[in-house]
Design a protein that fits this description.
This protein has a single domain, classed as Rossmann fold (3-Layer(aba) Sandwich), CATH 3.40.50.970. The protein is globular and about 45 Å long. It is of the alpha/beta class and 184 residues long. The protein contains 7 helices and 4 strands; from the N terminus they run αβαβαβααβαα. Helix 2 links the parallel strand 1 and strand 2.
């Protein structure tokens, strides 16, 4: 059986989510043409088009604000911030809008968004690329912070956030890597 890396599992999950739901869109710095700094989105723009997978300017506040606005209007955005050290401009959007939208509108609106960013020293980058501020965000009511520890968990967690549209059943069911792509 071929071994799938965490990055490949993210790519597979994004592709499946986009196949299953036309409302899933992916955007961020270099995610379209170049496939992202770690190549987690390679091939998605060619497969799903530049209206659903697109590059943004180097502007993290724009990415997080776009996620919130798109999610409030019924889309399911997946924004990518290149490194966790660049998350600080996003905090206003995450804390004051994404986390509170459902309560603020008494359930009329929700914010089904994903904001992906690598973190920690394992990425072997300079100091501004290696921060781990996830603990700070995990303490904000209304936000969910997940850190997958394996390709299988990365695949499952991303798909659980974007369950297949269907009638009945359990949302997020069948979120395992396809059999031929699991680790031995």
């Amino acid at each position: 059986m071929p071994e799938v890396t965490l990055v490949e599992a993210i790519n597979l999950a994004l592709a499946r989510a986009m196949e299953d739901d036309q409302n899933v869109v992916v955007f961020g710095e270099d995610v379209g043409v170049n496939g992202g700094v770690f190549r987690a989105t390679v091939g998605l723009q060619q497969r799903f088009g530049s209206e659903r997978v697109f590059d943004t300017p180097l502007a993290e506040l724009l990415i997080s604000g776009l996620c919130v606005g798109m999610a409030a209007q019924g889309l399911k955005p997946v924004g990518e911030i290149q490194f966790m050290g660049f998350i600080y401009p996003c905090i206003d959007q995450l804390v004051n809008h994404a986390s509170r939208l459902r309560n603020r509108t008494q359930g009329r609106l929700s914010c089904p968004m994903v904001l992906r960013t690598p973190h920690g020293s394992g990425i072997r980058a300079p100091e501004h690329h290696s921060e781990s501020t996830e603990a700070m965000l995990a303490h904000i009511p209304g936000l969910r912070v997940v850190i997958p520890s394996s390709p299988e968990r990365a695949y499952g967690l991303l798909l659980a956030r974007h369950p297949r549209p269907r009638s009945g059943g359990v949302p997020g069911a069948n979120t395992h890597l396809p059999r031929g792509e699991r680790r031995g």
